[in-house]
Amino acid sequence: METSALVLLAVKGLLAACLPLAMVWMSSDANKYRKLVWVTVFLTFDLIVFGAFTRLTDSGLGCPDWPGCYGAANPFIAHEQIAAAEALLPTGPVTVVKAWIEMTHRYLAMGIGVLIMALMATAWLQWRKTRRSEFSPAIPTALFFFVCIQGAFGAWTVTLKLQPVIVTIHLLLGMGLLALLVWLGGRQDHMVRPPPTAGASAPALAALRPLAIVSFVLLFVQIALGGWVSTNYATLACTDFPLCGGKVVPDMDLEHGFTLWRELGKTAAGHYLPFSALTAIHWVHRNFAFVVFAVVGWTVWRAWPHAVLRKTARFVAIALAAQLVTGLATVFLDFPLAIAVLHNAGAAVLVLLVTMLNYQLKYQLVPAQRAPASALSPQASHP
């Protein structure tokens, strides 16, 4: 039964991928591989946002088994079991609407998997034919294994009943998948339109690159902390700002709050998670946000004088400010669904932009370092 459900899920993923594949194939763009990469980036971003919607509407267990829904291929077939569960507990995790949200998320995820398989197959075929660097299959192959691991964690998210550490890793893998796809997209853009090097200072770029890497790492740590807040339902543990429960440093249980391997809402010993543990989870995420804001903001400030980086730096600054606003709004407006989804989308946008900034720094630095040498060469000295 599970094997047949998995095959049917894969078929639906193939169907979900048919439309974007057809759009790429029928497009007038001469470089269809590059177009496919960016279409996959766009749909992966959409999937992350829809995954946030699935989590925030408590739809993660809308179908409490995997890969099917009550052993069936889709909620239509399992309608009787879903309706019975909903009648027994109308506000519970299983309802008709939540089942469709969860299964739609799975269909979209399988579609992304098919697109990544298409990317890998295209890269290998073109690489064997042409040996051109833009078709190097290393990243597409890594993406394939990455999405397989992501799929496994998606399944464990359901079978382990939304265990917080599994759900958080699932979120981080999704963000990592987006970052890797953006890096691949940056490589394709670089091959088609090499960026200008005029005005690029090699020493300044070299000094900025470690700061951009630190920004990326801190951003992922903050996303992990945010995922930990969401998966433990700790968003409203602090309902005031800048204080938390009327205190600068509230009563917190860091030990139980950050014990990773435990059930949802329970301590490692199986007791109910105390409210002070939820407070600790929220407070750490809130305050680490200011560290990330300062470091990423400083990176933007340092990147802004460079014409080749200014556009990306501007977008990072806008996304960073918007993320701060939506984060505060979730507290002051009592956690509205739309704002919470926007906050998750903002995190994905920041991953995309900070990844692109790191790519630009890496591949601007090499030609910038070569420029002085070429200027001093005998050929460059001729009028």
Describe the overall structure:
By secondary structure, this protein is an all-alpha fold. The protein folds into two domains: 1-193, no CATH class; 200-369, no CATH class. It has twelve helices and no strands. The protein has helices at 2-26, 32-56, 79-88, 96-130, 138-159, 164-192, 202-231, 254-257, 275-303, 307-332, 337-376, 378-381. Helix 2 runs antiparallel to helix 6 (164-192) and helix 7 runs antiparallel to helix 11. The longest helix has 40 residues, at 337-376. The relative contact order is 0.10.
Describe the structure in brief.
By secondary structure, the protein is mainly alpha-helical.
Radius of gyration: 23 Å
For the residues shown, what is the average pLDDT? 90
Q: Into how many domains do the coordinates divide?
A: 2
Helix/strand order, N-terminal first: HHHHHHHHHHHH
Compute the separation of the termini in Å: 76 Å
Q: Can you tell me the overall shape?
A: flat
Number of strand elements: 0
Q: Into which percent range does the helicity of residues fall?
A: over 70%
Strand content: under 5%
* Low-pLDDT windows of residues: 373-383
- Structural class determined from secondary elements: mainly alpha
Report the sheet with the most strands, covering strand number, pairing sense and barrel closure: none
Number of helix segments? 12
